Amino acid sequence: MKRNWPFRAAVAVLMATTPLASSSAETLQEALASAYLTNPELTAQRAAQRAIDERVAQATSAMRPGLSTTTDFNQDFPEPGQFQDDGRQFQSNVTLSQPIFAGGRNRANVRGADQRVLSGRQTLRATENRVLLNTVTAYSDVLRDQSVVELNRNQVRVLEEQLRASRDRFEVGDLTRTDVAQSEARLATARANLTSALGQLALSREAYRRIVGRQPGTLEPLPPLPTLPGTIEQTVDIASAENPQLLAARFNEEAARSDVRVAQAARLPTLGAQANVGYNNAQLGSGNANQGFRINDFSQSVGARLTLPLYEGGAASSRIREAQARRSQAVEQIAIAEREAVENARNSWEQIQTARATIEAADVAVRANELALEGTRQENLVGSRNILDVLNAEQELLNARVSLVRARRDEYVAAYGLLASIGRAEAAALGLPVDRYDPAAYYREVRNRWGGTDVDLDQPGVTSRPN
């Protein structure tokens, strides 16, 4: 009997990478909740959104008063190394300034920043949909590959028994050496397929760990699918109205429109008021205290400044043209996003229909192949079928079962892909048992703040790592 220790060693190594099952099985809802709270791609996008929120505070600050101070100190040295009180001067000024009119630039900046906040929130939604879709995909892949491993492992056991039976029948002259060789070859192929299936399972487990944040233990079967649109037309209509990336593109176009107004305002006059308080203390003279004089006084002033740009070498006109071109680009980005949303929605719908048809066909094939295998085995016992017929029937049954497992996975993933394309593969729509992250909370906190950096970030899903 030939040794099979290389195969057993390979299986042992691959199975060593599989952790022991947890005491309680994990559900898809739990995996989705974990990804929602800890996935770094999602928490990074939340941080990016908070950075976008700060642009509104920065734009608003341009309309607020500013307060500054300057202090100067000078000491003259009549001769190197000689220090005297004469020639010493100290000046300090405090200036309060208030913009009054900037040609509409500041308000346009604030409006553009607000539109980018809305666009960023839709980008955050798109990231959430993508991360949760990836979680469903990883969960389904692990279940699929576990089933494929079990099917291939069972095939190896069946073929090992088949080989032993073939050898026994060969010993009594009931089979030929060719029949035994065919059984050996088919068993070797089955072992190779099992090794490949174990390797694919290891890859799927690592993908799960990357997305969810931990290795999968025992996973519960997939729950029933959420409610899907009834027709492809409904799917397309919802995608055209609610796809997050499409909505983000529309808000970006509004922001680009405001950028054009900002650039145009550079040609208009600006008006600002300021108040100044100064203090001057100086001891000036020629080195003789009797000939010098001392200054010690305060000064106050209030004024206004009107600035009218006349000519800037064409820079202002160029910036207007640039802003107009970027707005045209943003308009085209809307068309791109809309086409992609419709394409993804249609593709997901077709993938669901294809997977369901495959499930139906594979289910019929499994039942038919089970009957065919049983009949072939019985016919082999009476001599009307040979060993190769039995081996082929066993392989066809395995192929049908694997096709059924993969088709069920494909249907589930395609369904969530459809939900993602219409913006409904997210925590709120899926009813995840988590405290949901509120992207507007940080915006409300910082939009009208006049200073300080102590912003409360105590929100679920802000970060999964220490600062």
Describe the fold and architecture.
- The protein has eleven helices and four strands.
- It has 467 residues and is an alpha+beta fold.
- The chain has a domain at 26-62 and 102-268 and 309-429: Outer membrane efflux proteins (OEP) (Up-down Bundle).
- The longest helix is centred in the first third of the chain and has 67 residues, at 105-171.
Q: What topology does this entry show?
A:
Elements: H1 5-16, H2 28-38, H3 40-61, E1 66-75, E2 88-101, H4 105-171, H5 177-212, H6 232-242, H7 244-265, E3 270-284, E4 293-307, H8 315-381, H9 387-421, H10 427-430, H11 439-446
Antiparallel strand pairs: 1-2, 2-3, 3-4
Helix pairs in contact: 1-5, 2-4, 3-4, 3-11, 4-5, 4-7, 4-9, 6-8, 7-8, 8-9
End-to-end Cα distance, whole Å, is: 61 Å
Classified by CATH, the class of the domain at 26-62 and 102-268 and 309-429 is Mainly Alpha
User: What is the beta-strand fraction?
Assistant: 5-15%
Major beta sheet, strand line-up: 1-2-3-4
Mean pLDDT: 88
Count of extended strands: 4
The helix/strand series, from N terminus to C terminus, equals HHHEEHHHHEEHHHH
Would you identify the CATH H-level superfamily of the domain at 26-62 and 102-268 and 309-429?
Outer membrane efflux proteins (OEP)
> Biggest sheet, in brief?
4 strands, antiparallel
Instruction: Enumerate the spans where pLDDT stays under 50 for 5 or more consecutive residues.
Output: 1-22
Which outline best applies? Answer: elongated
Question: What is the third-level CATH name, the topology of the domain at 26-62 and 102-268 and 309-429?
Answer: Outer membrane efflux proteins (OEP)
Integer-rounded radius of gyration? 37 Å
CATH architecture of the domain at 26-62 and 102-268 and 309-429: Up-down Bundle
Secondary-structure-based class equals alpha+beta
Q: What's the tally of helices?
A: 11
Helicity level: 55-70%
